[in-house]
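Hi R.,

Here are the chain sequences for the assembly we discussed:
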Amino acid sequence: MYVSQLPFLRDHWYPVAVDGVLGRDLPIRLFGAPFRVTFDGTGEPFVTAPAPTWRTPRPLPVRRRYGLVWTTVGEPVLDDPPTWPEAELPGWRTFVEFFETWSCSAPRIIDNNLDNSHVAYVHRTTFGDPDDAHLARPAVSHTDDPYFRAVLSSEQKGLGVQLGVTGDEAIRFGRTSTTELVAPLTTHVRMRFDGDVPDYAFFGVATPIDDHTSIYVRLSALAGSEQEQPWDRFHAFGTRVKEEDRIVLETTVPDFPIDVTSEVHLRCDSATLAYRRTLASLYAQHESSPPLQEKTWPST
Ligand SMILES: [Fe+2]
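And here is the predicted structure of the full complex:
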């Protein structure tokens, strides 16, 4: 289904600008409609629906969190954007790692955040290894219904370069990733190394511009000091990983199935299957959702 066919997505918070930019007047599109982000002389951000192209011109609610300006175009189900735990932890440093427009539908981006099966192939020049394409099955458990977390332990190469502890990309590091879906288009990922090297964490959000286009935002949090985990090396490696994802994601179709039979899935797809079930549940609960069409298969 397309973003425009999933009305519940509108009732959540999305980042629409990087905070701290004085005097900017920024036209944006959200869910296919025009809006505007402005910062007054003191740097206070505002988001408005410009008249007369919008039927009910109105200021949108705004929150400033984690270096970003967030808004919602619908009836927000929560008073604030999701909490990013590592931003509150002492000793952690937080960064807006990237804030970019991608030619990809928002659910495809989040699906990729949750997917482990693509790593060995898509990330073969960073932390994936096609010679070790073991497809482990993440352990999925429910958090706040209908959301969930997926936990997976693995031995990953390349990470020593990201972490700034070695220049040898072949050395493997034992890592446990915990990926939580905290909103329909928001993931929280915590990477744990059991004290061998500093942990890090991500907050990934896909802000729908329209059915085909999204703002892909990643916040990164690094444990330890700049000497223990240098930002420049982390960011340089993360940029390579991100570009590997972009090449594939920008070729995906924007029609994202919220059933589990339209696309082929393997046992290792436990998290991405859970994602489809979550979206289907949110769709079914929302009063504005039209009835789902019965799927019809072409006759042979
Ligand atoms: Fe990826």
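The mean pLDDT is 88. Residues 112, 118, 122-123, 245 surround fe (ii) ion (CB under 6 Å).

Let me know if anything looks off.

Best,
T.
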